[in-house]
Amino acid sequence: MAITAAMVKELREMTGVGMMDCKKALTETDGDMEKAVELLREKGLAASAKKAGRIASEGIVDVYLSDDNKVGTIVEVNSETDFVAKNQVFRDYVAAVAKQASTTTATDMDAFFAEKWDLDPQFTVKEALSQQVAVIGENLNIRRFEKFEKAGSGRLVSYIHGGGRIGVLIELACDNDSDALEELGKNVAMQIAALNPKFIAEKDVPADFIEKETEILTVQAKNDPKNANKPENIIAKMIEGRLKKEMKEFCLVEQPYVKDGDLTVKKYIDSVAKEVGAPIEITRFVRFETGEGLEKKDENFADEVAKAMQ
Questions:
Q1: What are the residue ranges in the chain where pLDDT is below 50?
Q2: Do domains 1-54 and 58-199+284-309 have the same CATH topology?
Q3: How many Å separate Cα 8 from the centre of its chain?
Q4: For a Cys-Cys bond, which of 19, 67, 126, 154 suits 173, CB 3.0-4.6 Å?
């Protein structure tokens, strides 16, 4: 497969690794972007995949919770410029999209776009979006949404950070609902926004994910000259230790609680559960970050202003 300059640029933006190393990695993996990231990690050039979600587009994330707290939604709507993302007309439109998502039966974006727009059913969601493009004068896109319908007793809680840069929706299961549950949800959602965990607990980590991480850590360890003379059993213990450390980063309840480093998130939840007199469980969460994984136009602010004036 021919390796293009665009592919090299994308891999460089994802990993922060130099152009030549990116080109070599893509050549060795026949252009497979995911395998190229893994290869660079194995070589110790890309320390982790954390850079893979760099913000690359404008827009905002917004959330909607129904008055009875039975339905919660989170959406990301993109714009071309940060200037438009701060515009109240745009923000009101995104809020309407989040509310629309609360009534949707769609499971993908195509079906969502084909639905009737709740605010004016003579139009589809796609047609209403086109109208907003005409009003705002900039290309817009509803990129993604997720809908939670509360399964039982407990609470849905949302959190928006940085004016819409990051949004979190979390579901808590608990037989005794109280204001303490709301505060817990906000605090845990802030934790998710800040530290971006991949899973709730270690039991939720798929076996293939652990296997892949182990492979990467093994290659890293064997490629490190400092380990050249170390016995295999010592290297195996090192890999096991590194994997345990990663699991504490990846799993929400294992993370140190950001508001009190002496506690883990699990211990914090247990303390609130004791206060409300019933067990509390995080059943699911979703975190959207604006522009995550999207490529940003290589333009500067002066160019944007010049274009707007034209």
A1: 47-56, 298-299, 301, 304-306, 308-310
A2: no
A3: 24
A4: 154
Domain boundaries, the chain: 1-54, 58-199+284-309
Give the contacts of 215 (CB within 8 A, at least 6 positions apart): none
**Rounded distance, CA 53 to CA 152, Å?**
33
Q: Name the region of 233 (left: φ>0; alpha: ψ -120 to 50; beta: rest).
A: alpha
Q: Please, how many CA atoms are within 13 Å of residue 27, restricted to the half-sphere of its CB?
A: 7
Closest CA to 75 of 58, 93, 63, 87: 63
Q: What are the tens digits of pLDDT across the range 79-107?
A: 888 888 888 999 999 999 999 999 999 99
pLDDT at res. 42: 77
User: What is the pLDDT at residue 296?
Assistant: 58
Rounded to an integer, what distance in angstroms lies between the CA atom of residue 168 and that of residue 183?
Answer: 14
Instruction: Answer whether 199's CB lies under 8 Å from 287's CB.
Output: no
**Which fold would CATH assign to domain 1-54?**
Helicase, Ruva Protein; domain 3 (1.10.8)
Distance of CA 192 to the CA centre of its chain: 9
Q: What is the pLDDT of residue 44?
A: 65
The CATH fold assigned to 58-199+284-309 is Tetrahydropterin Synthase; Chain A (3.30.479)
pTM here is 0.72
